[in-house]
Amino acid sequence: MSEQHKNRISVEIYGQTYKMVGPETTGHMRLVATMVDDKMREINSMNPSLDSSKLAVLTAVNAIHDYVKLKEQVEQLEAEIKQLKG
Question: Where does it sit, as one GO cellular component term (predicted)?
Answer without folding.
Answer: cytosol
